[in-house]
Amino acid sequence: xxxxxxxxxxxxxxxxxxxxxxxxxxxxxxxxxxxxxxxxxxxxxxxxxxxxxxxxxxxxxxxxxxxxxxxxxxxxxxxxxxxxxxxxxxxxxxxxxxxxxxxxxxxxxxxxxxxxxxxxxxxxxxxxxxxxxxxxxxxxxxxxxxxxxxxx
Length: 152
Prior knowledge:
Rossmann fold; globular; alpha/beta; 4 helices
């Protein structure tokens, strides 16, 4: 599909996968259904949730240092939305494309998803081409390149 964007990201030696996903997801979390493919979903969930809370803490600090009232309101709305975002390794039965949440799944869980995905992060060596049919129009697939040890 020509209307699915694919972004290939290479981690530097000092950047953890979860740090990179949390900071990238920060810009896309309000867009709909997010799926992260991982070989070890529970491990990634714990580390990613911790990084997500650190991103929220940075925004709280920024809000407390901000003088402009309009900017403070915007940051408060962003923080509220980020705090309400759910992270899970279990896929609900009636998931729809309008659901918001981050689902960390194994590749074998993908056939059970009937809804279109807005953003998909691929953390293991999987070809993204066959997965494009699961993505909404103008959705995004983020592929992480490099050795698995650096990505884990």
